[in-house]
Structure formats: structure tokens, C-alpha cells
Amino acid sequence: MAVYSVSDINVKDPEAYKEYMALAAPLVAKFGGRYLVRGGQVTPGEGDWTPKRVVILEFPDTESLMAFRNSPEYAPVGEIRHKAADTKSFRVEGI
Predict the structure, then answer these.
(1) Predicted structure pTM score
(2) 52: Cβ–Cβ under 8 A, 6 or more apart, which residues?
(3) The domain spanning residue 85 has which CATH number?
């Protein structure tokens, strides 16, 4: 069953975040993932949630997503993101 990672990202260091994006994309693909949303104009809807930058990833299953997130290849790349941005995220299974 497909699983989606949904992130609300507040970029603090745009140059470092560009580096992160360049390094993360091939790793997402390597683990079977793909970007469905990667930035773009955000138009607030109901409630008081106004995300800064939205990223939605699709993976074939939870195991693939977790293999990506926990991989030794992603660890140093993830550190770049942690320094460059504040992130709130969750994962959700598709139907």
C-alpha cells in the first residue's frame, strides 16, 4: 500500500536547502519514492494552518519510506535539512 510523507517546511537557510534538495532527490528515487509536491504556491484553506513550503513524497510502502529515512546515505543529507530548515511532518497510508 502506498504511503505518503507530508512535510511543512520553514526554510531558514535557502542556499543550504538548495544543496539538500539536490542531494535528496536521487536518494528518494533510489528507495522507490517520488515527489508529488515540492514547493509551489500555498493557498490556505480551513483552520489556521498556513504552511511555508509543502513537500509530499509517495513511496510504495512504509518499509521503503523508512529504509530511505534510516539509510546511511540519507543521514548526512538529513543533517543539512535539519540545519537549513524547521520541519513538521507526518506519514499517512493511501488507499
Answers:
(1) 0.92
(2) 8, 9, 10, 11, 42
(3) 3.30.70.100
